[in-house]
């Protein structure tokens, strides 16, 4: 199993990353009750060799990016963030791909992260009220102007990936995908990413609450002295060498269990049982 992946061809990272959404308060709004614990989770991830961290301006909003800076993540890891999705106090996530907004948010995210250039800047979700090509062109312009190194997409179809690739080099795609949720459309997106050398970041890789639907996962977990969640995470790493899972947690204990899943070597028979 390949241990690393080159994002955009030049950012080499360990394939098992960390998702920083859960560093925020309840419902991903505001600060957590214990900010020092959140920073310690990040520092422990770095200590364990995690060097790819995913966040977004809407997590908090702003809280996750700030805590990552305070924990020293931008100095030690590739930090990917996103723009294009608003977070309301009432809990709604609202697509917002307006070019002026994205241009403003890149400045805000750079400031929160304490960086001059964002490693990987992702369009969080296509906005039905904004032309997709206009939104992507804004990300392309930000890359040309030196605000970001690489551009990524999230929650897109194959057709949208193709459209975006005509505008700018796409380094990654982040869609929902896990051992319990792999619809045909996302299988097609993964295949396209493999063809183009694009990293595929499966969000929700642990499939929490859905693993009871996966036949054979308990038996595979027993065979490897692991938990079903660890097997689910290991499955993503074995499913494709382009896969960059980013399990998130606010607990050091859970973080360590997630990282340990990277050492599980699933056999062909294991993969067949899980399929």
From TrEMBL:
Keywords: Oxidoreductase. It holds the Pfam family Aldo_ket_red. InterPro entries: AKR, Aldo-Keto_reductase, NAD(P)_OxRdtase_dom_sf, NADP_OxRdtase_dom. CDD domains: AKR_AKR13B1. It comes from the Archaea. Residues 15-275 form the NADP-dependent oxidoreductase domain. SUPFAM superfamilies: NAD(P)-linked oxidoreductase. Transmembrane segments: none annotated. One of its GO terms (molecular function) is oxidoreductase activity. This is Aldo/keto reductase.
């Amino acid at each position: 199993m390949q241990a690393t992946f080159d994002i955009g061809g030049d950012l080499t990272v360990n394939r098992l990353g960390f998702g920083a959404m859960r560093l925020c308060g309840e419902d991903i709004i505001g600060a957590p009750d214990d900010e020092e614990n959140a920073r310690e989770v990040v520092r422990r991830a770095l200590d364990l060799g995690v060097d790819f961290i995913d966040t977004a301006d809407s997590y908090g909003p702003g809280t996750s990016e700030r805590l990552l800076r305070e924990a020293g993540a931008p100095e030690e890891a590739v930090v990917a963030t996103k723009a294009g999705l608003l977070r309301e106090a009432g809990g709604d996530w609202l697509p917002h791909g307006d070019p002026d907004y994205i241009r403003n948010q890149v400045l805000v995210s750079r400031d929160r992260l304490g960086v001059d250039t964002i490693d990987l800047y992702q369009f969080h979700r296509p906005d039905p009220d904004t032309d997709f090509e206009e939104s992507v062109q804004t990300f392309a312009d930000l890359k040309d102007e030196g605000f970001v190194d690489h551009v990524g997409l999230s929650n897109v179809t194959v057709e949208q990936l193709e459209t975006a690739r005509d505008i700018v080099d796409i380094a990654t795609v982040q869609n929902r995908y896990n051992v319990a949720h792999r619809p045909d459309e996302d299988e097609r997106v993964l295949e396209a990413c493999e063809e183009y050398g694009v990293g595929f970041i499966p969000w929700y890789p642990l499939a929490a609450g859905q693993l009871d639907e996966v036949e054979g996962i308990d038996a595979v977990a027993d065979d490897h002295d692991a938990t079903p969640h660890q097997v689910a995470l290991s499955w993503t790493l074995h499913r494709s060498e382009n896969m960059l899972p980013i399990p998130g947690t606010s607990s050091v204990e859970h973080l360590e269990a997630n990282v340990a899943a990277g050492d599980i070597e699933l056999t062909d028979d294991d993969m067949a049982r899980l399929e």
